[in-house]
Specification:
Elements (H helix, E strand, L loop, with lengths): L10 H15 E2 L21 E6 L21 H13 L14 H4 L4 E5 L3 E6 L3 E6 L17 E7 L2 E7 L20 E10 L2 E9 L8 E9 L53
Parallel strand pairs: 1-2
Antiparallel strand pairs: 2-3, 2-10, 3-4, 4-5, 6-7, 7-8, 8-9, 9-10
Length: 277
């Protein structure tokens, strides 16, 4: 079996459940007028809530979605890194490695925000989180310890929360679900707004002179979930028993905007039923 096309047995159940999961993890555009965005005690917008991606957005998980032909402006080093990611590496999140930023801003998974006066916390599926201080006087470290989300500092510009991040890890990391690379020179600036009660929007500026010839931007809007929706416990590697068959790379973007191989290998037969006692 071609390892690029192989699918782990445990993925069979997930594949059968994809239509249901897509309904639960995305939302349609609300109809009718929306209420104003809630406000913090200091007058700034309150971003707290459970946020879902817009239903039908394709291609998903790709920071090149706003670029002509989905083509990233890669340097020769960036092109080599991308080819390595899609031909020689397994998706890091499949191995329980934190996706980080900018990947989580492109993810199809919902997330939750807990917003305080001096800090904001993003809670992600797979039990990841990032905590950002909101302090205009705070400056970046001279030599921050590398991390998956980087050293993140927030400040307000009117009703826009700006998050400026440097100090990223450059190994075992994809910048999005398409295998796009980033180096340790990555610099990300996110500009978050909540124009009304139902919508949360981000404009992301991505700079990486080692891997990209120019800065790129990625924009995204989410829809508010229901009041009782929230993040739940998730144990990433509890049943990861077949990692050898995960396959390299994410697969190409197909004509319909989805990702995967046009002619994947057949699914393996289901596991036999346990013997009756």
């Amino acid at each position: 079996m071609n390892v690029h096309h192989a699918i782990p047995r445990l993925a069979l159940t997930a594949l059968l459940c994809l239509p249901v999961l897509a309904q639960q993890m995305t939302a349609p555009e609300p109809s009718g007028p929306s209420r104003p965005a809630p406000r913090m005690s200091d007058g700034h917008p309150d971003f707290s809530g459970y946020w879902k991606g817009l239903r039908g957005m394709v291609p998903g998980g790709n920071i090149a979605k706003d670029l002509p032909g989905l083509k990233l402006p890669l340097t020769p080093a960036g092109e080599a890194a991308w080819k390595h990611n899609v031909t020689a590496t397994v998706d890091p999140e499949a191995l329980c490695i934190i996706g980080g930023i900018p990947r989580h801003n492109a993810s199809g998974l919902p997330f939750e925000i807990v917003h305080g006066a001096k800090k904001i916390v993003f809670l992600y599926w797979y039990s990841y989180f990032r905590l950002i201080p909101i302090d205009p006087a705070r400056k970046h470290s001279e030599d921050p310890d590398p991390s998956f989300f980087g050293e993140e500092l927030g400040h307000w510009e009117g009703n826009t929360l700006v998050i400026d991040s440097i100090g990223f890890k450059d190994t075992q990391v994809w910048a999005d679900e398409n295998g796009s690379p980033h180096s340790d020179a990555l610099h990300v600036v996110e500009r978050w707004t909540r124009p009304d009660f139902d919508h949360l929007h981000v404009e992301t500026l991505i700079e990486d002179p080692k891997f990209y010839t120019r800065p790129i931007t990625y924009s995204r809007t989410w829809i508010a979930g229901k009041p009782d929706e929230e993040i739940h416990e998730y144990s990433c590697s509890e049943n990861n028993v077949d990692r050898e068959h995960l396959g390299f790379g994410p697969g190409p973007i197909r004509k319909d905007g989805t990702r995967g191989y046009e002619n994947p290998a057949p699914l393996p037969p289901p596991l036999p039923a346990p013997a009756k006692k």
